[in-house]
Write a structure and sequence with these properties.
The complex is a heterodimer of chains A (about 300) and B (about 300).
Chain A: E1 2-8, H1 14-23, H2 48-54, H3 63-78, E2 95-100, H4 116-119, E3 122-127, H5 130-141, H6 145-153, E4 158-159, E5 172-173, H7 177-186, E6 191-196, H8 197-202, H9 204-215, H10 221-230, H11 233-243, H12 266-269, H13 272-288, H14 296-302
Parallel strand pairs in A: 1-2, 1-3, 3-6
Antiparallel strand pairs in A: 4-5
Helix pairs in contact in A: 1-10, 2-3, 5-6, 6-13, 7-13, 13-14
Chain B: E1 3-6, E2 9-13, E3 21-22, E4 31-35, E5 47-48, E6 52-55, E7 58-63, E8 67-72, E9 76-81, H1 87-105, E10 109-118, E11 121-126, H2 133-142, E12 147-149, E13 152-157, E14 163-166, E15 172-175, H3 176-181, E16 188-191, E17 198-201, E18 211-221, E19 229-231, H4 235-244, H5 249-254, H6 258-271, E20 273-279, H7 286-299
Parallel strand pairs in B: 2-4, 4-9, 11-18, 18-20
Antiparallel strand pairs in B: 1-2, 1-3, 5-6, 6-7, 7-8, 8-9, 10-11, 10-12, 10-13, 13-14, 14-18, 15-17, 16-17, 19-20
Helix pairs in contact in B: 4-6
Classes of the chains: A alpha/beta (about 300), B alpha+beta (about 300).
Chain lengths: ~300, ~300
């Protein structure tokens, strides 16, 4: 069984890609229920497998102590350890895709948090224009766009990182949008397939086909075609509207997980000043990933 | 030597075990906790994980940076501290995790649950770490219900199917945020460990004698498709919920105790109701959850309606 990380900064299409993959095996001519995405092996930062496999109560450890032990969890899971004794997978899929938002970092003891080549065979790194990430992140976290922009520029930012409470996920270090992308693209432990959200949108079938080929996940043309139809963004949004999405933001009025899903919507969502700030912070990485800068200022700095 | 009662067993320990129920010991202890040399690995291990190994009746458990623990035959725990580890760190893992594993080793039925006493019976809240067991127990303790246990809950089933709960723990362990949001600052005690913002909190009342099991609630977060409320799962699901609620389900499997837990699940399902308690995982909803539970106890006959 191969393990492939689906690595992305939050709000960059990770769930969409997972829905596409899940719909390759859609049954009865119906789209996979968005609430039936496998929870197990769902996200690398889930707390359950840590406590389950190590027997240690993560609620008694600091974030750093947990990080030191996380590689052991990913090694175990990659070798086929079960994270649920009562729901064993009968026929494991040929490829195990695991969502991960953590940056590719080293633990305080100096080894890769995600266990390098022992934790996965390769990674599909999914990136999205940071100007589109910012409004989406603001919506997801119920914060202002300016705050989201500041979060995306903060090298010490994290999800689930406060020390005074226990989250249902482990801390995920998100050292800025650029830092996150760089961490994955520059690590040398495992092979990377770079996938841009915008390309997935422009040519869903082709981009998905290339990603699956990289991952070694066999898929028929029929299957890909069906997945593209079933995991169409409008489809996903309708499902969320009708029955809610368990992975979405905690219930609060007017906040959806599947928001616009458009590429380039930033043009009517961000002020010129906000665009300039994002481009000033992330110009070099944006250019590296093929996102054209809109402000001359930022261009000059990135040049 | 400090003496305690854990799951109804007499424990003598070379180091203090904050949070465990202190007890005067008469006669030899059932379990001895002492410091000593602990190997880094066991020969002829029949099962192992990254932090643990089983070889015969010996169980090795490693908490990096804290200590190695060797559990022998369910009767003895030897610990060897890691360089720089503090006694308080070792104690919290002893009380929180190692004794729980030892109960598995003894073949006991032990659930991952908090519990309070309601009209003479134990009401359990099961769930994995982070499910909100302690926070809910704290909120109910604020309503005057004595705390029965905070983390693990040993259960004895007699020949006639009666289910008894062994109380454990005089304290709750709560994060700073929960203490603040539940307005429990006055009851806050020492930090559980120096380096984490989790504190012992002394409830207004504790109950330390064995008591019959009342109701079991499996905690679940209200996220689609699960809506907030209390519902009774079907018999098959109820038994599965209980087996999943073992303190360490992995050990039930590796120690070959599935049949025991399956039987226990059936007995518990018969003797006490098993329900899903689904609620929003936030503090705002807590008063509503408590009120809902109080109504439910009337409905299931655990509490009596005021005349």
């Amino acid at each position: 069984m191969r393990t492939i990380w689906l690595a992305s900064y939050p709000k960059s299409g990770n769930t969409w890609l997972r829905m596409l993959i899940a719909n390759l095996s859609a049954k009865d001519g119906k789209p996979v229920d968005i609430n039936d995405l496998p929870e197990r092996g769902g996200i690398a930062s889930a707390r359950g497998p840590f406590d389950h496999l190590l027997l240690i109560d993560s609620g008694l450890l600091t974030h750093d102590e947990i990080d030191c032990l996380r590689p052991r969890v990913y090694e175990g899971l990659a070798r086929g350890a079960e994270d649920d004794e009562y729901d064993r997978v009968e026929a494991p899929p040929p490829v195990r895709f695991v969502k991960v938002h953590d940056a590719y970092t080293l633990t305080p003891s100096g080894e890769p948090l995600l266990a390098g080549a022992h934790g996965a065979d390769a990674a599909i790194v999914l990136v999205r224009d940071p100007r589109d990430v910012a409004p989406s992140l603001a919506n997801h976290n119920r914060i202002g766009i300016d705050e989201a922009i500041a979060f995306m520029a903060d090298k010490n930012a994290a999800f689930c990182g406060k020390p005074d409470r226990q989250y249902n996920q482990l801390r995920q270090q998100l050292p800025g949008w650029s830092g996150h992308a760089a961490s994955w693209l520059e690590q040398k432990d495992i092979a990377v397939h770079l996938l841009r959200y915008e390309d997935l949108q422009a040519d869903t079938a082709g981009t998905l086909r290339a990603a699956l080929a990289f991952a070694g996940r066999p898929a028929s043309e029929d299957g890909i075609e069906r997945a593209v139809t079933f995991a169409d963004f409008t489809q996903l949004r309708e499902q969320e509207r009708d029955k809610g999405f368990r992975e979405g933001p905690r219930p609060r009025l007017g906040v959806n997980f599947f928001r616009r899903g458009e590429a380039g919507a930033w043009r009517d969502e961000l002020s010129t000043e906000q665009v300039a700030r994002i481009e000033a912070a992330h110009g070099p990485m944006m250019r590296r990933l093929g996102y054209e800068l809109a402000t001359a200022d930022a261009l000059a700095r990135a040049g | 030597m400090p003496s305690y009662r854990v799951a109804g067993l007499a424990v003598a320990s070379e180091i203090e075990l904050p949070g465990a129920i202190a007890a005067v010991q008469a006669g030899a202890p059932d379990i001895m906790v002492r410091s000593g040399r602990v190997p880094t690995a066991l020969d002829h291990a029949s099962a192992r994980g990254a932090t643990w190994e089983i070889a015969g009746d010996r169980f090795l458990f490693r908490v990096p940076g804290v200590a190695r623990f060797l559990l022998g035959g369910g009767r003895e725990i030897v610990f060897e501290d890691a360089p720089g580890a503090e006694a308080a760190d070792i104690a919290v893992f002893l009380v929180g995790t190692v004794l729980g594993i030892l109960l598995h080793q003894r073949g006991r039925i032990v659930l991952h649950a908090s519990a309070v006493r309601v009209n003479g019976k134990a009401v359990l809240f099961c769930g994995p770490s982070g499910a909100g067991k302690s926070t809910l127990a704290a909120a109910l303790a604020q309503r005057g219900l004595p705390l029965v246990t905070d983390d693990f809950c040993a259960v004895s089933i007699s020949g006639d199917g009666a289910v008894l709960v062994q109380p454990d723990g005089r304290n709750l362990k709560l994060w700073a945020q929960a203490i603040h949001r539940l307005d429990l600052a006055e009851r806050r005690g020492a930090r559980v460990r120096d380096r984490i913002e989790k504190f012992f909190v002394e409830p207004a009342a504790v109950y330390s004698e064995p008591l019959p099991m009342g109701t079991v609630y499996a905690l679940r977060e209200a996220r689609p498709p699960h809506k907030a409320g209390i519902e009774r799962p079907n018999v098959v699901d109820a038994a599965l919920i209980l087996r999943r609620s073992a303190y360490r389900p992995l050990l039930v499997n590796r120690m070959g105790q599935e049949a025991d837990y399956f039987r226990a699940a059936t007995a518990i399902a018969n003797a006490a109701g098993i329900f899903h308690l689904t609620r929003a995982l936030n503090f705002e909803s807590m008063p509503e959850v408590v009120a809902q539970l109080e109504r439910h106890w009337l409905d299931v006959g655990l509490a009596e309606r005021a005349a």
